[in-house]
Design brief:
This protein is about 35% helix and about 20% strand. The strands form 5 sheets. Strands 6-3-2-10-9-1-19 form a 7-stranded antiparallel sheet, with helices on one face. The model has no long low-confidence stretch (mean pLDDT about 90). A hairpin with a 5-residue loop joins strand 4 and strand 5. It is globular, with a radius of gyration of 21 Å. Helix 2 runs parallel beside helix 4 and helix 10 runs antiparallel to helix 11. It is built from 15 helices and 19 strands.
Length: about 500
């Protein structure tokens, strides 16, 4: 049995990671099992209809890889009018956001396909063992996490009120947000199919057919052909050296990894120990440069990989030139073999729709306006959407291994970069996670706002990190901004 450290968004997810670790699983098994539980009990933040990325550092000196399970543009059916089946709402969540919901906002999900690919390459236990904890949570019922409840306070009627099944699942008899155990009809049966048939159940299997037929039937674009055609993509991770750490994160088409890598390189080793006022001022300059470049260049790029390489080359060549120019869940796990696994998944803000006969809330990632700069249905079918995600792993010259990441929309990159900079600069891992954060919103625009955290808030992300020291000692750190939970599983306990 391998020692495993897990950091997860809630107690039930952490329990799942512990359960599979005690059954002989490694960091990959534990992280995937924990993430599957979040797809059941982090309502409004993530579901089985989610997209995500998994970054893995295999034991030894092997190359780290990222498995891309992010959302595709649907529409292969070809006979649905573009722009149909959607409507816009405004909510005060996260300081105010405009989102598009409805059947036409549902993108082609990819998380389960990525999980299957990751498990096949680096997992140890049978697939069913990873799904069983989520199946049990769905069957026995769950209470809303504080993060879910916080989001639902803003959205429970506008987003989750228009679909009858969705409304019934999250509201009590008086129409208030449910406080008791929630059992979503058909969800346990869906997970039983996923446990028995594997991830394919969500694509060319029964669940994929049910989801596609229901979305098309309600005027959306996603059909069975889109799901059957979906494939995860495995790429070498994007590497950045910071001090004695080699950090590996998501390459394009995720924008998150590029932004994290650029921020870390521009921070240039800051802070040295505790953050100083001068360090924070420099951090704001770094965020303004990187996030401003994203808005100016990356969001409209026709060749993101080339534009990302060019930007990182400029960062490496001339820091000064760059600095002077203009809803989600995360699990991290490491193990005593030296493996690390970082998983970030999201369903957007939710379309508000449960697919008939499945119990599965469907995503609204076509309706996340910041991820679709070309418009609601502006991409060709099969094209990957943009993403802020940046699940990251690291390897130190002394053999230490790290897994880290965060939810938080466009705050993902700033949260991960700040915690990594603090940790690599000498802060203990939990202190680096706990430290107040800064985020430059609308960088470089006339309405730019530098948001400085005074009281801990989930707006600034929810970092989860797990660390293996060179002597095999494991540490896990969860973010107090969310219902974070950690588990340390030692062989022989």
């Amino acid at each position: 049995m391998t020692d495993v450290a897990i950091a997860a968004p809630n107690e039930a997810a952490a329990d799942a990671g512990e359960r599979v670790a005690r059954a002989g699983g490694n960091a990959v098994d534990a992280a995937l099992a924990a993430a599957l539980v979040t797809m059941v009990n982090e309502v409004g933040l993530v579901s089985l209809s989610s997209g995500g990325f998994v970054t893995v550092q295999p034991p030894g000196d092997e190359t780290p890889y990222t498995v891309d399970g992010w959302m595709d543009m649907p529409g292969r059916a070809g006979d649905v009018p573009l722009g149909s089946g959607t409507w816009d709402i405004s909510t005060e969540y996260g300081g105010g956001v405009d989102i598009t919901i409805g059947p036409g906002s549902v993108a082609t999900h990819g998380s389960l396909a990525a999980f299957g690919e990751t498990h096949e390459r680096w997992g140890r236990l049978p697939w069913r063992a990873l799904v069983e904890p989520a199946l049990q949570v769905a069957r026995d019922g769950f209470r809303l996490s504080s993060a879910s409840r916080y989001y639902l306070e803003y959205s429970h009627l506008d987003v989750f009120g228009w679909d009858e099944a969705s409304h019934a699942a999250v509201h009590d008899a008086d129409g208030e947000i449910a406080t008791g155990l929630i059992v979503v009809p058909d969800l346990a049966e869906a997970l039983e199919l996923i446990a028995a048939d594997g991830p394919s159940a969500m694509y060319d299997g029964e669940l994929g057919r049910l989801i596609g037929a229901d979305v098309l039937g309600r005027g959306g674009l996603l059909g069975p052909a889109d799901l059957a055609a979906y494939r995860p993509v495995v790429r070498p991770s994007l590497a950045t050296v910071v001090g004695d750490w080699t950090l590996a994160t998501t390459p394009p088409p995720s924008l998150g990894g590029v932004c994290v890598a650029a921020m870390l390189r521009l921070l240039d080793g800051r802070p040295h120990g505790a953050w100083t006022d001068d360090d924070v001022a420099h951090l704001v300059r770094v965020q303004r440069a990187v996030l401003g470049h994203r808005l100016d260049v990356f969001d409209a790029s026709v060749d993101l990989a080339a534009d990302a390489r060019a930007f990182l080359d400029l960062v490496d060549a001339d820091h000064l030139a760059v600095l002077e120019s203009g809803s989600t869940a995360h699990v991290s796990a490491t193990d005593s073999d030296g493996g690390a696994c970082s998983v970030t998944v999201s369903s957007g803000y939710s379309s508000g729709m449960i697919a008939a006969g499945t119990g599965i809330w469907l995503n609204n990632c076509l309706g996340e306006q910041e991820l679709n700069p070309r418009g609601l249905h502006g991409l060709a079918p099969g094209t990957r959407l943009l993403s802020n995600m940046a699940p990251t792993v690291g390897r130190h010259t002394d053999g230490s291994a790290l897994a880290i990441g965060s939810p938080g929309a466009d705050r993902i990159t700033t949260a991960v970069a700040q915690v990594l900079a603090g940790f690599v600069g000498g802060m203990p891992l939990q202190e680096a996670v706990h430290h107040p954060r800064v985020h430059v919103h609308r960088a470089g625009r006339a309405d730019e706002v530098v948001k400085t955290e005074t009281d801990l808030s989930m707006y600034f992300g929810g970092v989860a990190a797990a660390l293996r020291h060179p002597d095999g000692h494991l540490v896990a750190s969860a973010d107090p901004r969310r219902d974070g939970a950690v588990r340390l599983v030692r062989a022989g306990d």
